[in-house]
Design a protein that fits this description.
Blueprint (H helix, E strand, L loop, with lengths): L1 H22 L6 E2 L12 E2 L3 H17 L5 H24 L6
């Protein structure tokens, strides 16, 4: 239960930071309505996956510190999801959408 709370709280806090950072017009990548992914009516942050990934990493760190029985599975999950996350984050910052 603690791991779920850590992941949730981390994700919520990072999400709030991203939304506020985008709302102030700073350099957070956002969809503005003229891009292929533009389904939103207002400026929308592109890097929402960052909050989810950091929540997973935070829960994995807590699991490792506590020597939780599922730490190996969490490490595998971070290892498998990590490359996809990095690719998505690079796409969010470069705004280059290429077909597969």
């Amino acid at each position: 239960m603690l791991l779920c709370l850590v992941a949730f709280i981390t994700s919520v806090l990072v999400s709030i930071f991203i939304v506020r950072h985008t709302a102030t017009g700073r350099s957070t990548p956002a969809i503005n309505g003229s891009e292929p992914q533009a389904l939103h009516l207002s400026v929308t942050p592109r890097i929402g996956g960052l909050a989810l990934f950091l929540g997973l990493v935070a829960a994995t760190i807590v699991a490792a510190v506590q020597r939780h029985k599922h730490v190996a599975e969490l490490l595998v999950l971070v290892g498998v999801v990590g490359p996809v996350f990095v690719a998505g984050l690079l796409e969010d910052f470069t705004k280059r959408v290429r077909p597969l």
